[in-house]
Design a protein that fits this description.
The structure is a single chain. By secondary structure, the protein is an alpha/beta fold. It has 12 helices and 19 strands. Strands 2-1-3-12-11-4-5-10-8-9 form a 10-stranded mixed sheet, with helices on both faces. Strands 13, 14, 15, 16, 17, 18 and 19 form a 7-stranded antiparallel sheet that branches. Helix 5 crosses helix 6 and helix 7 packs parallel to helix 8. It is elongated and about 80 Å long. The N and C termini lie far apart (67 Å).
C-alpha cells in the first residue's frame, strides 16, 4: 500500500504529548503514513524566531495534508493566532467539525450526531480592525459572495457524500441584513442544485437555544466564521467538551486537521493530557486520505476503550495519557467486519471529491445599475458636529452616533461617544474629486475625519443601512 507523507505540527503545551500518542496508535495500527515534523506556535517563536516559519507552510503545501496539535495564542497582545494564520495563508475556506456522542463520555445527551461546516477565512476573522478615536474601536465584518458560495457548496457536497438529509444555514440576517443577508442568499442559491437535500435556515441565537434543548433535531449546520466558531464549541460541549472535538480545515487541494482545544500549559508534561480530540481529527484525516479501513479500526478501538471505562481524568477516569493510549492500542481489531458499537464517527468518506466546481465562484455581479448616492464621513467630535447642511451638490441628511440618529430632530437621551457618522447624499453625479473637496470642507470646519464609506444603490434599492430612527 502507498505511504502518505503528512506534515505533523506538535505545537505547544500538551501538544507534543497528544501528538506522540496519535503517532504511537497509528504505528501499532500499521497506518501507511510517514510523518514530516514541522514547527509552529509559541515555542517555535522562541526557538526559531518565527511563530509560523515559511518552511512549515511549504511542508503543508508539499504534502497536501497536515495534522496539528494546539498552539498557544496570547490574549490581547502578542502574535496572531497560528490557526487563523494557517487558514488564511492556505485559503482553507471550510472548517468541518463533527460532534457525535461517544460511549463512556457522560453528557446530558446520548444521541447527538451533528456536522458543523464553518466558513473559515472572512467575516470578523478577516482581522480588519482600527481605533477610530481613543475611545472607539472598529471591526469590519467582511462577507463576500464568493466566500459564502464556496462554503455553502462545500457543505452541500459533503452532505451528499455522507448521506446527510438536511442542511441548515445559521445566520443573523434579521439584524445584519446586508452581510448575513448575503450569506443566506448564497446558501439558498446553492441549495437549488441539491434538490434531494432539505435546506432551511435559523437565526443564530435560536439555534443555540435549540441545541442545548434538543440537539438531535439537526443534521448539518453551515455558518459564517464567527457564529461557526461559537456554535461549534457549543456543539462540542454537548458531546463532552473540546477534549473530544475533532476538526478539519479544507481547501481545494489542502487539508489541515487539528485538535481545537487549547495547549493547556498548566498540565503539560504531567501525563494528564487527553489525546481524543487530536486522535479523532487524525481519524478524520484518514477518511480524507481514503484510508477508510484504518480509520474505522482506530475509531472502533477508541469507542471500545471508552465503553470499558478506560478514560483520562478530565472524562472521569484515572488513566494517564500513556495508559489511555495503551488501552486504545490493545483494542485495535485486526480487521473490521462490523462495528461492535454501531456508531462510527463517519461511516462514509469524510471529504467529498474536490471537483473543480466544489468551490466554484459565482459569476461576477452585474453592476450596470450600481450607483453611488452619497457618502458617510466619520468624524471625531466631543459633541454633536456642527456641519454645513449643504456643500456644492451634497446635502447633510443625518448624523448618527453608534448607529442611532442624533440629527436632525430632537437629540435622543443616549450615551454619546466621540465618533459621529455624517451622511451626505448627492444631487446628481459626483466622483472622488468632489468627495475630496467635501472632506477638505469638513476639515476646514474643525473636524478630523477618520473613515469614509460610499453609499451605493442597485436598481433603486439602497445597499447600505439606515441609522436607528432615520
Amino acid at each position: 500500500m502507498e505511504n502518505y507523507k503528512v506534515t505533523l505540527i506538535k505545537g505547544d503545551g500538551i501538544g507534543p504529548e497528544i501528538a506522540d500518542a496519535v503517532v504511537e496508535i497509528f504505528k501499532c495500527a500499521n497506518v501507511p503514513i510517514e510523518w514530516e515534523e514541522a514547527y509552529a506556535g509559541l515555542e517555535s517563536s522562541e526557538k526559531r524566531g518565527n511563530v509560523l516559519p515559511e518552511e512549515t507552510l511549504d511542508s503543508i503545501k508539499r504534502n497536501k495534508v497536515a495534522l496539528k496539535s494546539p498552539t498557544t495564542t496570547p490574549v490581547g497582545k502578542g502574535h496572531k493566532s497560528v490557526n487563523v494564520t494557517i487558514r488564511k495563508k492556505l485559503d482553507l475556506f471550510a472548517n468541518v467539525r463533527p460532534a457525535k456522542s461517544l460511549p463512556g463520555v457522560k453528557t446530558r445527551f446520548d444521541n447527538v450526531d451533528l456536522l458543523i461546516v464553518r466558513e473559515n477565512v472572512e467575516d470578523t476573522y478577516a482581522g480588519i480592525e482600527y481605533y477610530q478615536t481613543p475611545d472607539v474601536a472598529e471591526c469590519l465584518k467582511i462577507i463576500t459572495r464568493q466566500g459564502s458560495t464556496a462554503v455553502a457548496r462545500y457543505g452541500f457536497e459533503l452532505a451528499r457524500t455522507l448521506g446527510r438529509k438536511r442542511v441548515t444555514c445559521v445566520h443573523k440576517a434579521n439584524i445584519h441584513k446586508l452581510t448575513d443577508g448575503l450569506f443566506l442568499e448564497c446558501f439558498q442559491e446553492v441549495a437549488k442544485d441539491f434538490p434531494e437535500i432539505q435546506a432551511d435556515d435559523i437565526i443564530v441565537d435560536n439555534v443555540c437555544m435549540q441545541l442545548v434543548s434538543k440537539p438531535e433535531q439537526f443534521d448539518m449546520l453551515v455558518l459564517p466564521n464567527l457564529y461557526g466558531d461559537i456554535v461549534s464549541d457549543l456543539c462540542a460541549g454537548i458531546v463532552g467538551g473540546l477534549g473530544v472535538a475533532p476538526g478539519g480545515n479544507i481547501s481545494n487541494d489542502l487539508a489541515v486537521f487539528e485538535a481545537v482545544h487549547g495547549s493547556a500549559p498548566d498540565i503539560a508534561g504531567k501525563g494528564l493530557a487527553n489525546p481524543i480530540a487530536l486522535l479523532l481529527s487524525a481519524i478524520q484525516m484518514l477518511r480524507h486520505l481514503k484510508l477508510l479501513s484504518h480509520a474505522h479500526r482506530i475509531e472502533t478501538a477508541l469507542r471500545l476503550t471508552l465503553a470499558a471505562g478506560i478514560k483520562t481524568r478530565d472524562l472521569g477516569g484515572n488513566c494517564s495519557t500513556q495508559e489511555f493510549t495503551k488501552g486504545i492500542i490493545s483494542n485495535i481489531p485486526v480487521e473490521i467486519e462490523s462495528d461492535p458499537l454501531k456508531t462510527p464517527m463517519m461511516e462514509k468518506q469524510q471529504v467529498p471529491p474536490m471537483a473543480s466546481d466544489a468551490a466554484a465562484e459565482p459569476k461576477a455581479t452585474n453592476n450596470v445599475n450600481w450607483k453611488c448616492d452619497g457618502i458617510d464621513i466619520f468624524v471625531q467630535s466631543k459633541g454633536l458636529p456642527k456641519m454645513t447642511e449643504s456643500f456644492e451638490n451634497f446635502t447633510l441628511t443625518t448624523i448618527s452616533n453608534r448607529g442611532t440618529k442624533v440629527y436632525p430632530g430632537t437629540m435622543p437621551d443616549i450615551l454619546l461617544v466621540d465618533w459621529f457618522t455624517c451622511r451626505f447624499t448627492a444631487d446628481g453625479e459626483f466622483g472622488d474629486t468632489e468627495i475630496a473637496r467635501l472632506l477638505q470642507h469638513v476639515t476646514a470646519l474643525g473636524y478630523e475625519w477618520t473613515h469614509v464609506e460610499k453609499l451605493f444603490s442597485k436598481d433603486g434599492a439602497i445597499m447600505y443601512t439606515k441609522a436607528q430612527g432615520e
